[in-house]
Q: What sequence folds into this?
């Protein structure tokens, strides 16, 4: 199985990723490299409005989101996600199968997408106490 | 595509969908509804299929896709949603 390995800083899991329009979109081969927060506390993935605009992704729907300030409605965007083997390798990300239906996020300095449990749950994530982190793609059989 | 027209279509379809959601939960929970002009065109198990069907059936016209669920998204400790 393809995988990425990195060392986490014991505060959060940030990796290099790629965001692409969904298959079938007129610009489906377009790609933007981003920082992705792997967040097991997020039930769905999301991307910032800035990235959605850069990829010319239309808002296709709406979704209630629970926040500390109460329930809000946010845009939904269809997109694909890939992951780079390491921060130094910026070619040929491993593109995950399928399309994700994520939510719009406010801009953040440290990451541009959240990969939530809809992404993590389809794959295999290992965290070790020495900082070693492994994200393998595809379900082990 | 006209962004404003797309936004109006999404808003109108979302209002319609919220009013009719309860009727669809039993038979289509977690599926994706392709919606055009406040009418459900078809349900799909995969959002990518729903998107491609929308492009094919309504070229250059606005449509929307709603997930058939009554569960809100929870972003856990990070609550950055605000778009």
A:
């Amino acid at each position: 199985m393809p995988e990425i390995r990195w060392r986490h800083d014991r505060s959060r899991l940030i990796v290099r990723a790629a965001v692409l329009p969904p298959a079938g979109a007129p610009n489906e081969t377009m790609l933007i490299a981003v920082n992705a927060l792997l967040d097991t506390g997020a039930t769905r993935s999301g991307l910032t409005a800035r990235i959605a605009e850069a990829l010319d992704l239309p808002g296709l729907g709406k979704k209630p989101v629970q926040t500390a300030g109460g329930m809000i409605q946010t845009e939904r965007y269809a997109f694909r996600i890939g992951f780079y083997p390491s921060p130094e390798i910026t070619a040929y990300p491993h593109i995950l199968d399928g399309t994700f239906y994520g939510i719009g996020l406010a801009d953040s300095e440290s990451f541009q997408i959240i990969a939530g449990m809809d992404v993590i749950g389809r794959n295999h994530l290992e965290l070790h106490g020495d900082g070693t982190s492994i994200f393998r793609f595809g379900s082990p059989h | 595509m006209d962004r404003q027209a797309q936004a109006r279509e999404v808003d109108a379809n979302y209002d319609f969908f919220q009013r009719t959601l309860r009727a669809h939960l039993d038979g289509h929970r977690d599926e994706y509804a392709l919606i055009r002009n406040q009418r459900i065109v078809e349900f799909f198990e995969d959002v990518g299929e729903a998107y491609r069907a929308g492009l094919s059936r309504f070229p250059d016209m606005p449509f929307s896709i709603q997930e058939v669920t009554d569960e809100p998204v929870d972003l856990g400790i990070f609550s950055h949603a605000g778009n």
In short: The CA atoms of residues 7 and 130 of chain A lie 8 Å apart. Chain A is about 5% helix and 45% strand.
